[in-house]
Amino acid sequence: MEILTPAQYPEYEAFVQSHPQGGFTQSTAWPKVKNNWESAVVASRDSRGSLVGGMLVLIQPIPQLHTSFLYAPRGPVCDLHDQAVLADLVAGADLLAKKYHAHTFKMDPDVPMADRRFQQLAQQLGFAQSYGPDGFEGIQARFNYRLYLNGRTEDQLFMDLTQGARRKVRIALKNGVQVRPVGPEYLGQFMELMRATGQRDGFNIRPQSYFARMLEALGDHVRLYMGFYQDQPVCGAITTNYAGKTCYVYGASGNTHREVMPNYLMQWEMIRWAVQTGCTVYDFQGVSGNLQEGSHMYGLYQFKRGFNGQLDELAGEFDRVYHPVTAKLVDAAIVGAGQLRSLRRRMGR
After folding, report:
1. What confidence category does residue 333 fall into, taking pLDDT thresholds of 50, 70 and 90?
2. What pLDDT does residue 297 have?
3. Which of 90, 16, 133 shows the shortest CA–CA distance to 319?
4. Span 151-169, mean pLDDT?
5. 109 and 53 in contact (C-beta within 8 Å)?
6. What is the phi/psi pair of residue 209, to 5°?
């Protein structure tokens, strides 16, 4: 086990990009987006000195309580059934916890709920597993809708969409909707669509500066897509392409011209990007675990289901708690801050 120096990051980056467990939130570019966190990279090597495991750890200092919080988003990157490598990486997290006086280390690997072997190993290494029924209780969504490409061509994939999705893509094309990747100069228009989406669907949105950092930090591994109808922007998305996975991370749409189905064409164009770059999966990202018709998030699932993928249930979050009392104090402070923000919103402040 070792904590890598920045000079070793290119080696780690190449490892993550080529590993089946790799993902953009484990890239060394990600801390440039999460610029209010510190970061470190833990690595495990085999007897020949080659990397066999790695983990980007974000570090959130909490100076008011003289502690910090460690988080490996969608980490670690390794064979998740290799106990020795997992133990190495956890030892690295422990070292960081001591250095930064951390109360908790959290990880949420991309591992299926059905993978009981990993869950047993995590428990043996001192982690407590947590998850909720809706899937949005943690930092990242626990239910992801994914289209596994399986080497299919664009024509094959298009014919494998549901009849309804094919029809709606064709409606967009017939009406002259145009979808294309654009530069950061379109972020202002994207934000207008994001604000409309947030107000319509009842969620808070990130500031424009966050998306600007994301586009700059991830470079060729991310695109801002915009859909236009009659030369006016009607939908947009920020999508990553990293480690063989294309991920639809943020999406936005206006309240007009929805009848020309621009969102369906936008998804299809992003799927085409995944095919053209040799990806194995197009990840629509989070949906709710509550699939009852009429539930708050059912419409989102219904939209994504039209592309004929599959719903993957992940195992949730795994916490290694170093200082239980401090952890409870931090959790209470977070809950209190959330209640205060909610009260201010209700008061219109």
Report:
1. confident
2. 85
3. 90
4. 97
5. no
6. -60, -35
Mean pLDDT, to the nearest integer, of 159-164?
A: 97
pLDDT at 341: 56
Record the tokens describing residue 308, joined without a space: 């004929």
User: Picking from 54-58, 63-67, 84-88, 270-274, which range would have the lowest pLDDT averaged per residue?
Assistant: 63-67
Paired strand residues for 99: none
pLDDT tens, 236-276? 999 999 999 999 999 999 999 999 999 999 999 999 999 99
Pair 315, 117: CB distance under 8 Å: no
Compute the Cα dihedral for 140, 145, 148, 154 and give only its sign: negative
